[in-house]
Every structure is written in structure tokens, then in C-alpha cells.
């Protein structure tokens, strides 16, 4: 049946309105970052005369925190994928006893409130000397990235045709070679999906950063913004400029990786 002419126009209008409402905070954040220092409410709806002093102040005060977040996030992504990829492959392909029990345990870890994990980690980190360290934050943030990555990659690896793996084994490839040269390339979309969400988890983390860092030596950007507001209440342009700069890496990564997130796991293996 043909759709009646003009029926989609109201839906399009409603969609545009909803999109504008959702993006308005982002627009106001950018607009406020380009206003002169002072009360943001006095700024106009559009920065006809943009002032970049807020970005200069943000780079001076928060540049180190941005680098800290980048180091912790990339470390968490590398650690999570390095641990989750072989674990997911073993759970997906090897007939191991207790696989369902292991998967149930992984799902349970996703249900534990972060504040509970944080309190336990603080006590352990205090004894191990991992407070105020990059390694400590990387390991803490990986507690969310590893279980999620295992669940995502296992489902993708299960969908890889067994014939592809058997053909590699017939050619003389061992289990490690099959995993490195066949399974990982075929699971590229799963790896990118897991890496993307692990990046977002870690980049936006606030609770671990607040609890496991007590000095300014290692301070992610989320904690920097939180403490920056209290120190510069009247410099909202610098606060918003910091928020804009903190949003750029995640936004760029989402745009670049969006086509891989919903893609099938076997498409890469078949095309190759």
C-alpha cells in the first residue's frame, strides 16, 4: 500500500523539534564557551563577537587533566580488549565446563552498583599503594569494560562460520594463529564496538576518579570540571570551554566508529 502524500511531514517536524530540544544543551554549552567571562545568563543567543579567552583559561588549567583522561582511557581500552578478546573466544569456541556459570557471573558483575565496587577498591588500593596512580584508574575503569567486552565479542565470535576456522586449521594454523589471523580480523566490528563503549565508560567516569584520587597528580577531566566549577564560579565561559573540549574526543570517536557498531561480525571475514 502506498503511503498517503504528506503523512510523513508531521513526523518529520516532530522529529526535528525533538532533535532540537536534545541538542539545545550542546548548543548552549558551545555558545556559553564563546561568551566573555562572567555570568552566562547575560550572554546572547548567538555569539556575534566570540571571545576565546575561556578556551585559553581552560587549556591552561585543565590541559593536564585532559591528557590524564586520555592516558587512562586508552590504557583501559587496551587492557579491556587484551583480556576480553581471548576470554570471549574461549567461551565461544571451546567446550569448557561451567561456561554458562562463568557467563552468569559476568552478567552479575554488570549489576553490581559502582559505588560498591568503588568502596572495595579504595580499601584494596590503599593497601597496595595504587591510589592516585594511572594504573589504579585503568584497572578500576576496566571493571566495567571487561565484562561488557566479553559479552559483546562472544556473541560475535559465535556467529563466525566454523568452516572459516576449520579451513585455517587444515592449512596448518594452530589455535593461536587462528585466533590472531582469522578470528580477530573477522571480529573487527565487535572489537570496535567494545572499544567504543569502553572508551565512553572510562572517559565519562566520575565516581572512580573522585574516590581513588586524593591529590591533583592524577586527575581526569570529569573531576577537573567538578572542582573547576567550585574554584571559578564566575568564569562560566572557561567551565563550558572545558566541557566542550572534553566532549570532542567522544563525539569524534562516535562519528568515526558508528558504521562499525551495528555491522555484522562475519561481513569482514567473507569479504576478505
Automatic annotation (TrEMBL):
**InterPro entries listed in its UniProt record:** BP-dep_ABC_trans_perm (IPR050901), MetI-like (IPR000515), MetI-like_sf (IPR035906)
**What range does the record give for the signal peptide?**
none
Entry's localization field: Cell membrane
Q: Which residues form the ABC transmembrane type-1 domain?
A: 66-257
From what superkingdom does this record's organism come?
Bacteria
> What's the chief localization of this chain?
membrane
Q: Where are the transmembrane segments?
A: 12-30, 66-89, 101-122, 134-153, 190-210, 236-257
Matches recorded under Pfam families: BPD_transp_1
Q: According to Swiss-Prot or TrEMBL, what is its membrane topology? A: Multi-pass membrane protein
Keywords recorded for this protein, A-Z: Cell membrane, Membrane, Transmembrane, Transmembrane helix, Transport
Cross-referenced CDD domains: TM_PBP2
Indicate the family of this protein.
Belongs to the binding-protein-dependent transport system permease family.
Name of this chain's protein: Carbohydrate ABC transporter permease
Q: Which organism is it from?
A: Streptomyces lutosisoli
